[in-house]
Amino acid sequence: MYTVYVLYSRAFDTCYVGYTSDLPSRLLSHNELGTSNWKLIYKEEYSTKRAAMQREKELKSGVGREFIRKNILKDI
After folding, report:
1. What would the mean pLDDT of 5-16 be, rounded to a whole number?
2. Are 8 and 69 in contact (CB under 8 A)?
3. Residue 4: pLDDT band by 50, 70, 90 thresholds?
4. Which domains are delineated in the chain?
5. Of the residues 6, 13, 40, 53, which has the maximum number of CB atoms within 10 A of its CB?
6. CA-atom Rg of the chain in angstroms
């Protein structure tokens, strides 16, 4: 199982989009090794790496960023 996720940093007022097969470890990596406190604000699960990579690419596009801004960030 692969997870596509969106993190939000209030300190930098920015989002990060990625995918992983181990979400808890990846979140730990972002927060322990990074310089910001990232909060998980959205996730989707996929059965194949290829599908997860494709969705990550979509969310990083202009249309994807707009989807995040209008549907996810509006509640933060």
Report:
1. 92
2. no
3. very high
4. 2-75 (3.40.1440.10)
5. 6
6. 12
Alpha carbon distances (Å) from 60 to 4, 6, 32, 33: 11, 10, 24, 23
- The answer to whether 38 and 16 have CB atoms below 8 angstroms apart is yes
Q: Please, what is the Cα angle at 27 between 18 and 59, to 5 degrees?
A: 20
DSSP one-letter code for 37: -
Helix or strand run (H / E) with residue 16: strand 14-20
What are the pLDDT digits (tens) for 41-70? 999 999 999 999 999 999 999 999 999 999
Number of neighbouring beta carbons within 10 Å of residue 44: 15
| Structure tokens, 45 | 């699960």
